[in-house]
Amino acid sequence: RKKLLLVAINAVCMSLLCACGSSSTESATTETEEVEEDPVANIPAFQVMETASEFAGGDGSEENPYQIATPQQLMLFAEHCVEWENRGSCYVLTGDIIFNDVENIEEVEDLTTLYGWESTGYYFSGTFDGDGHSINGLYIYPDTGSDMAWCGFIGDANDARISNLSIVNSCVDTAGVSSVSEMGVIVGNGYNTEIQNCSSDATIRCSGVAYSGAIGGIVGWMQSGGILQDCSFSGTIELENCSTAWVGGIAGYVSSIDVLSCNSDFRVFEQDSAADIGGIIGEYKPGADSVISDCVNYSDLTVSTSSIGGLIHTVSLDQEMELEDGEWVYSAQTLHITGCSNEGELYTETGIISDSPSGGLIATIFNSQSRETGTGSIVLEDCTNYGSVAGVQCVGGLVGQVCNAYTQLSIKGCVNHARLQARLMWAESWARWIFAVRRTVYRTV
């Protein structure tokens, strides 16, 4: 009996110990699952450029800006401009700067051999004048000190002026950051900012990112006043496993900004990604009296699942309200597009059911307004499409589709000189067959 009692006691003790061990293991497992991955842990270990102790001259005023003559002084600008008391300071380049002395930065396989440029931080509101000079060999990665993770030479500009600057042989890269907001070579995010006479020849890489709001060859996102003028982009935009809303050769997203005399000539590579792509602008939201004039897209753009507009992908006439005499009223949005052209070949090929509008100038015009709230108006004047357009379902030489009958669209003196091809697809998965109708339409006016 004593032996039986001891056996029973041992069995109970063992079961309790096992239960406790199991509970501890589960607890440990739960704690492990709750540990969040560091969103910036995968950023390459770039070389760190030495920071100069002072600028080449100047006092930061508009009359006497800080002078930048070396890569080390460019690093001083990056540290200096994010300090609150210096956010409104003025800077000027006094010569060309080589940040990484490599022949082709795209071909560098070991990024740890490069000096990295972390996008300058929040709310730069000063001026940066390139004075006709260039910065060569920047490897730009997101601002890791901000929740927004903007990505650009200047990450976030607010009431700023950037002019006369060229960035060449450079790369803008998500660099392992899992969530990035806006990406642009010159500016990531701009608010009431002027960008004039700037150019970039760079590669923009968005890879493995859960969300990137807008990508542009000059600026990712720009809104609420300011101007984009005399800017150009030539380079490559690469999208790999990247959830991206808008992509543009000059700007990904623009709201209430005039865009004048800009041009682009770039390539786009897309893998397991989808975006609304425009040769100049991804999405444009007009203000009360907005203008886009004398812009040209030279880019031949071929995508698999995205759709394309030669000039703009989407013009969005959303409902806007303003306070007038103590009452909220709907404001009228107007956009005048004049003297613009597309000279690039636009091709969208989708292997599944898709409604992907494509247009020689504009892929789609979206209007959320109604008869009661206002109509919004767009004028296309003296614009031309020279590039062939091939897409799925909705294809137009000038405009792919207009989504609301309340949109006032006026077309004056515009011509399409190119071949159009629309593929109409129906598919029934249970039958595992696809029937496609192809139709080709030539010259429309």
Give an account of the 3D structure.
The protein is mainly beta and 445 residues long. The chain has two helices and 41 strands. The strands form five sheets. It has a 27-stranded parallel sheet that branches. The longest helix is centred in the first third of the chain and has 33 residues, at 2-34. Mean pLDDT is 83; it is low at 1-9, 11-32 and 426-445.
Shape assignment: globular
SSE-based structural type: mainly beta
How much of the sequence lies in strands comes to over 45%
Number of helices: 2
Q: Low-confidence runs (pLDDT<50, min 5 residues)?
A: 1-9, 11-32, 426-445
Number of E strands: 41
Estimated radius of gyration: 27 Å
Sheet of most strands: 27 strands, parallel
What is the multimeric organization of the chains shown? single chain
Query: Portion of residues in helices?
Result: under 10%
Mean pLDDT over the full residue set: 83
Amino- and carboxy-terminal Cα gap:
105 Å
Offer a quick outline of the entry.
The protein is mainly β and 445 residues long.
